[in-house]
Design a protein that fits this description.
The chain is an alpha/beta fold and about 260 residues long. It has helices spanning about 15-25, 40-50, 65-80, 105-130, 155-175, 190-205, 210-215, 230-240; strands spanning about 5-10, 30-35, 55-60, 85-90, 135-140, 180-185, 250-255. It is globular. Bound molecules: nicotinamide-adenine-dinucleotide (NAD).
Length: about 260
């Protein structure tokens, strides 16, 4: 068990990538906090983990809401005694040509991906420093932290921004043994991606099969999707790493779509 008794808060863990990380962390002995704005789904996920023999709780958290973030982290610390790992993972996608994108949608994307990362990092770092046992902050970036695609201006801008944030957290957190890193997955079949396949087909005027083959997986080495388990294993490696040697980095898990 690589995370025995570690307290791990995962945002957006009621679905997709975050949910798989929650299950993997629980199997590795972590006490898992499912932090999601979809409280019913978060509670159902926590219940499933407990039923499978793990330790988990759900907290209601819209990551763009300062008071909810601080309250959710405080509830987790009170229940489980400290904070060891933050996975800042909650996210959405809005597909649009930049010239058609509303200012509201631009701000919404940056709020969830960047404000959410800031607010959860601040609350969790404070708890990690107070507990004095170090910690690991992991951001869910994307290949779009390094590459650009059309129709995704705010997503690409926000995901690039997470790399800068992680580097600052790595520098400021070092004295308290807090590490910060970014995971950069390629396309993973989750509700977030399933929703955008027909949207991209419409915007680009091509079939859904072509979106998958010639847009999403075109640059991979083998035409395959990355899986939620691939990302969960990367999150396990980062959280369980034993020293400050691995900090301020981004790790791409994308079937070779992006090579660093
Ligand atoms: P998903 O839609 O399956 O899950 C996202 C979760 O985030 C949902 O449970 C949702 O309720 C929650 N959420 C959304 N807005 C929130 C908010 N404001 N506050 C709290 N929770 C909120 O998506 P996913 O594919 O698992 O994506 C998770 C992360 O991985 C995102 O940051 C996404 O950008 C990133 N990512 C996904 C892929 C992919 O191909 N699926 C690739 C690279 C990166």
């Amino acid at each position: 068990m690589l995370l025995k008794d570690k307290v791990a808060l995962i945002t957006g863990a009621a679905s997709g990538i975050g949910k798989e990380i929650a299950f993997e962390y629980a199997r590795q002995g972590a006490k898992v906090v499912i932090a999601d704005m979809a409280l019913d789904a978060a509670t159902a996920t926590a219940n499933e983990i407990v039923k499978a023999g793990g330790t988990a709780m759900a907290v209601a958290m819209n990551v763009t809401d300062e008071a909810q973030v601080d309250k959710g982290v405080a509830e987790a610390v009170a229940a489980y005694g400290g904070m060891d790992v933050l996975i800042s993972n909650a996210g959405i996608q809005i597909i649009s040509p930049l010239v058609d994108l509303s200012y509201d949608n631009w701000k919404k994307m940056l709020a969830i991906h960047l404000d959410g990362a800031f607010l959860t990092t601040r609350a969790c770092m404070r708890a990690m420093i107070a507990a004095g046992r170090g910690g690991s902050v992991i951001y869910m970036g994307s290949v779009h932290s390094h590459e650009a695609s059309p129709l995704k201006a705010p997503y690409v801008a926000a995901k690039h921004g997470l790399i800068g944030l992680a580097k600052v957290v790595a520098k400021e957190g070092a004295k308290d043994k807090i590490r910060a890193n970014v995971i950069c997955p390629g396309f993973v079949r989750t509700p977030l991606v399933d929703k955008q396949i027909p949207e991209q087909a419409k915007e680009l005027g091509i079939s859904e099969a072509d979106v998958i083959k010639n847009v999403m997986l075109k640059e991979t080495v083998d035409g395959e999707f990355t899986t939620v388990q691939d990302v969960a294993q990367t999150a396990l490696f980062l959280a369980s790493f034993g020293s400050n040697a691995l900090t301020g980095q981004s790790i791409t898990v994308s079937h070779g779509w992006h090579m660093q």
